[in-house]
Task: structure prediction
Amino acid sequence: MPAEAALARLRAGGFEGPFALAIVTGTGLGALVEAVTERQSLAYAEIPGFPAPGVSGHGGRLHRGRLSGRPVLVLEGRAHAYERGDPAAMRVPLETIAALGARTLLLTNAAGSLMPAAGPGSLVMLSDHINLSGHNPLVGEPSDARFVPMTDAYAPSLRATLQAAAEAETIPLLEGVYAWFRGPSFETPAEVRMAGRLGADLVGMSTVPETILARFLGLEVAAVSVVTNFGAGVAGGDPHHAETKAVAARAGADLARLAAAFAARLPAP
Result:
């Protein structure tokens, strides 16, 4: 199995667990890696079954090290469902980090905001999501484990820990519901209005399939969006990928501080 081959490669390279936390970085958020000390890195291309990200702003490296003294894994970048039509593109990496002993997963992403109070540069913690893509990464899974409960998919205890970390660092942290569109084209103003009427506060093209996979694998999940723009038609929003990368990079310092304070509050593995 690909995950077994990946696990063997990583263990041979010294990537031994357990880990207090694994983090996936979104578009333009690779600066979070710089907060990790005692860092050891390996390109996805060197790990069997790890997909090479095909989007600029995603580094495509796995790092191990310490964040606030806690042993962590950082997946710098992700493969998206829109790249090859595979919503399970991150299954092998997530299976691998679970097998290495990570039990908590922090997902980050760049997102468009539907909330006037959450302009570009804001951080928003996910409380729930809406899958508008029509896809699910567990399609084809033969076991009954595919029937994954998704109530509290974003663990309330981890959300409370994130909020405490944000307050300690005086970082404003809002909370909202994320709607997953498959992409890669940005949403139309009509689609954004629809998402808002369905209860979404954010729109984006990632995170939801990873949350489903993580819950399938028994991982506890928290997620934070960096707002890089308003959604199309909201407060003049007209999103572009260059804007996404630029704003995410500027907000990366706050996200790194939040992640470090979050890690410090997690129990040692």
